[in-house]
Design brief:
Length: 145
């Protein structure tokens, strides 16, 4: 188990497993985190909170599309997208196109309550995003029942 928001895996008393990988986000690390969610969540309901990826320049749309493809393959019960920029728009729009299900859009201030409203005992939750989005605090909030 890693610490400090780097692939920290914690199981709550209600059986919900929280994967906190909110320290940073590169496209490659988001893809790896989604793979980890799929593996840890095998046979369980999977939920992902993904923040948009910053500082990708001209490759932003392409990389966010790759992330969306991986999220669609992860067979998520719910995807919650955090951010207000182009990356968040691409994540949301492409996920809707790929799965027929629109993800919930949130800010770091609203996503914790939204996750709590949908979590069921035994779920596996991934929180992944750039440190600047504040998702580390969200993951910490979601560690308690």
């Amino acid at each position: 188990m890693a610490t400090g928001g780097r692939m920290a895996v914690t199981t709550r008393t209600d059986g919900v497993t929280v994967i906190n990988d909110a320290f940073n986000a590169s496209p490659e690390s988001v893809l790896a985190a989604l793979d980890a969610l799929t593996e840890v969540g095998r046979g369980r309901r999977r939920i992902a909170v993904l923040g948009e990826i910053a500082e990708l320049g001209d490759a932003s749309v392409e990389w966010h599309q790759h992330v969306t493809d991986a999220a669609a393959r992860a067979s998520l019960a719910h995807l919650l997208v955090v951010g207000t920029g182009e990356g968040a728009d691409v994540l949301a729009d492409a996920y809707t196109a790929a799965t027929g299900t629109a993800p919930d859009r949130h800010t770091a201030d609203t996503v914790s309550a939204a996750v709590r409203a949908i979590l069921l005992p035994g779920d596996v939750l991934l929180v992944k995003g750039a440190h600047a989005l504040g998702l580390g605090a969200v993951a910490d909030q979601l560690l308690t029942v």
